[in-house]
Amino acid sequence: MKYLVKLTIFVLTFLLLIAPFPAFAGSSSTVTSFSTAFNNADFSGRNFAGENFQSKEFTNVNLTDSNLSNADLRGVVLNSSELVNADLHGADFTDGLAYLTHFDKADLTDVVFTEAIMLRSTFDNAKITGADFSFAILDGDQKKQLCTYADGINSKTGVETRDSLGC
């Protein structure tokens, strides 16, 4: 059964990368205007705490040192983006897609990554205490690395970080 689920997720991921569906914003905010996609933008050091970015697309966007704590990132697409040293604690990245994205040194404490696809993304020295990676897809080497220091329980889902990673 697990094999069938993994195979289904792989096929859907493959199809999504070949023929991506357009993302539509669930709502707009004054920070993001009416745009659903951000390309080649520099948002480093910006404060987006608590903002709703649901279903937005970020391609080649620099969010280094940005504050995205408690942000609604459900269904967000991050492609070749930088979130180095970003603060995402308490954010919800459910059903998100992060491809070739760097979460290095980011604060990912208590983030919900349920069913997120994060292939070719890196998490070097990221803080993941209480993060929930249930049914998330990560590269094997990144998963192993995260398992070496995974701890805590997510305050929203009640899931242990180690269990969600399958450590």
Q: How confident is the prediction overall: mean pLDDT?
A: 87
| Beta-strand share of residues | 5-15%
CATH architecture: 3 Solenoid
What is the string of SSEs from the N terminus onward? Answer: HEEEEEEHH
Could you say what the CATH topology is called?
A: Pectate Lyase C-like
Give the name of the CATH superfamily.
Answer: E3 ubiquitin-protein ligase SopA
**Which structural class do the helices and strands define?**
alpha/beta
| Count of individual domains | 1
Shape: globular
Give me the number of helical elements: 3
Instruction: Give the end-to-end Cα distance, rounded to a whole number of Å.
Output: 19 Å
- Total number of strands: 6
What does this structure look like?
The strands form 2 sheets. This protein has a 4-stranded parallel sheet, with no helix packed on it. It has a two-stranded parallel ribbon with strand order 5-6. The protein has one domain: 3 Solenoid (Pectate Lyase C-like). The chain has 167 residues and is of the alpha/beta class. The protein is built from 3 helices and 6 strands. About 8% of the residues have low confidence. The longest helix is centred in the N-terminal third of the chain and has 17 residues.
